[in-house]
Amino acid sequence: MFHAPEFTTLSAQINAVTEDDVKLAFASSHLTVENLAALLSPAAEPYLQQMASQASTITQTRFGRTTQLYAPIYLSNYCTNRCVYCGFSADNHIKRKCLTIDEAEKEAMILHERGFQHILLVSGEAESAVDIEYMEAIALRLRDKFAAVSIEIQPMSTEHYHRLFLAGITAVAVYQETYDREIYKEVHLSGKKSDYDYRLETPARVAEAGMREVGIGALLGLADWRAEGLAIGHHLAWLRKQFWSTAFTVSFPRMRPAAGEFEPLQIVSEQNLSQLIFALRLFDQDVGLIISTREEARYRDGMLGLGPTRYSAGSCTAPGGYGSDDSDGEQFSVGDHRSLEEVCAAIREKGFDPVYKDWDREFQREDNV
Ligand code: SF4
Asked: Which domain holds residue 309?
């Protein structure tokens, strides 16, 4: 079981970093978590250009001049948890909706016609609306239409993840939101999500279940972003040791305007986000790094090839949002409003190739039902 180091210890370790520690990190070919702490520190800020350059070289060597693309489909905004930062919180009076299996397929086919081969099924955490049978039925409908179907829903048991894997789900994302136990308690007022440890153990259950890819991350704006980055590094290194054949991704969602009155507890600037992405790229050369449409077009275009490997595009964060113009009931408002074609054009303009498909279910055919 992964034991997250004390958050205050991580912050203290980062704040004690010297310029020599930063230089040592740059000189290392295989970075340790101590080196990662150095790259995340204030002492590394004058070296951001050098970090960008090294991150760019590594990213383009490992992943080529490509950017993978995906789109989320919001299945349901029902939620039994009270997360103070989220538009779907049970406390918020928003229009609630859970797509039927036919409606979910219709949304998926809209994205299919737009050219997407990788979709991410997202929902609030309410088992009365979205349970294992519902997810299984949707997976079976979509498995032959898309190269990759990922999910971001409530944490499940290993057995249920394995059932979803057999039904055609290829990846699961489950973000810790914050690795700071104290703040975690303050922002998760009630519901199953208030159990910090159960959530922390979820990525391991996903990998145990045989999923091809597991996504971890933290919601930036709740706690010290540098310590979140170091905690992610510890978690990632532990997962890699236990599950050497699983692929891992890290996401960096920065807080966006949403229903409710919540204001970020910490400001994370674009420069901070870039430092975090560069540091993780140098720390783990093979991890997939994801930037969603939470970030603005200008920033996403500027980061192409510098660390991130996957972008969402043309996203809508309300259930049924692709088939209607109604944005009522969305989780948060997006920062990049461009269509898939516009995102692809921007990627090509920078000399990169948009990639719609980097996996085929045939690769795991013998494992499937
Ligand atoms: S963050 Fe997730 S669990 Fe929390 S209120 Fe939003 S949808 Fe529900």
From this structure: 7-367
